Amino acid sequence: MPIYDDEEELVKVEHALAKSSPLVFAGECRQLHEHLAKAAMGQSFLLMGGDCAESFKEFHVDTIRDTFRVLLQMALVLTFGGSMPVIKVGRMAGQFAKPRSEPQEEVNGLKLPSYRGDIINSESFTEEARRNNPWRMLDAYHQSTQTLNILRAFATGGYADISRLHAWNLDFVEKSEEGSRYRKLASKVDESLRFMKAIGVNTESATFKQAQFYTAHECLLLSYEQALTRQDSTTGKWYDCSAHMLWIGERTRQLDGAHLEFTRGIGNPLGVKISDKITPDELLEVIDNLNPNNIPGRLSLIVRMGADKLREHLPALIRAVQKEGRFVVWVSDPVHGNTIKAENGLKTRPFEKIRDELRAFFDVHDQMGTHPGGVHLEMTGKDVTECIGGTIQDIKVDDLNKRYHTHCDPRLNGVQALELAFLIAERMRSRTGLPPLFNDA
Ligand SMILES: O=C[C@H](O)[C@H](O)COP(=O)(O)O
Ligand SMILES: C=C(OP(=O)(O)O)C(=O)O
Ligand SMILES: [Mn+2]
């Protein structure tokens, strides 16, 4: 938690936020909860994706549209390929606060506080910029209102109409092999739609015309989250109305910490990131704390440990959860356990490691007979060069500088994200005994 040097300023901002409109409504959070309950029971799949850190500088309607578009493409691949409903959640409209490994950053002998996300301080390397400034919370709130407004318009105003599925292909993706796979799959979906129409299914209904899209971010900056927490008039329960779903990060999930204490009191569906550092007993305590009544859909466990550690540690965690009969959605975050520093000093992630972790996640669930319930990715619709590798694009370390725009961790670009969606769809198909979508799978 940042320390603000002027308490009065902080209180003023909290009051302003407390008077502002909620960004989401309790009923929407409950709807998402119901979808997640299906994922907990093995009947649905959660797709979460977006920037590591949203920023004020990169804010643009086109950027939001492009990420939304890749998520729609991925969801189509997963729904059609995996024959399962896909719950779409953007790391968007609130994903601003960052936990950092080092409290300070040193450049040419000068030490300043680390950049902690645009909602807290600024990335420029000056003393003033790195000061924790509570007013930034209001800027983040206002940007989130715009983002949500755009997302709601895209989701319900015709953009996400399934008959436009060919238009969701992004220019730079279209030219790649993934783009052509997507086109092939889209044609198959087209054919199915024509068949449905022919037998009298109403393809003009909201199911075909609109997407249900939800938002989530890390519940890190409690001043912001608490100020946006409201009591729902229909149920009397408290909801954090900054996003539909909130998750607790790997660094702030202590049993006696403020983040668990805050989130256990809100009605939103929750996530907890877990690395190999958590023990089965500790995990059960986290579950007891956040979901004492064992309600399916309430809690997602977002596993991020790297392929090798996952193969070693995940089975025991799953066994403990199974033994106690606890309902959780098992989600793979295959990016956070695979961050490395390239020779040029930039943080990157090898695509192959990300793919290995996903494969390991599916293998372990196959062995344990449990449902691999979702994936959580840092990704963007832009053609960035932040993660090296990829079967199709094969970004090299020397390419990283070309379009390295992230404000924190390296993101998958559209082609890389789509490649993962195809991989997951093939795994989902083989679990249900369906033949591969493409023969080279
Ligand atoms: O997004 C996650 C963390 O904030 C990020 O990985 C921390 O990065 P750092 O190790 O550069 O501080
Ligand atoms: C901080 C993050 O992840 P983790 O808590 O898993 O490190 C994140 O998702 O950006
Ligand atoms: Mn990150």
TrEMBL record:
Cofactor: Mn(2+); Co(2+); Cd(2+)
EC number in record: 2.5.1.54
GO biological-process terms attached to the record: amino acid biosynthetic process; aromatic amino acid family biosynthetic process; chorismate biosynthetic process
Coiled coil: none
Catalysed reactions listed for this entry: D-erythrose 4-phosphate + phosphoenolpyruvate + H2O = 7-phospho-2-dehydro-3-deoxy-D-arabino-heptonate + phosphate
InterPro entries: Aldolase_TIM, DAHP_synth_2
Source organism superkingdom: Eukaryota
GO molecular function: 3-deoxy-7-phosphoheptulonate synthase activity
A Pfam short name: DAHP_synth_2
PANTHER family per UniProt: PHOSPHO-2-DEHYDRO-3-DEOXYHEPTONATE ALDOLASE (PTHR21337:SF0), PHOSPHO-2-DEHYDRO-3-DEOXYHEPTONATE ALDOLASE 1, 2 (PTHR21337)
Protein name, UniProt field: Phospho-2-dehydro-3-deoxyheptonate aldolase
Organism: Nannochloropsis salina CCMP1776
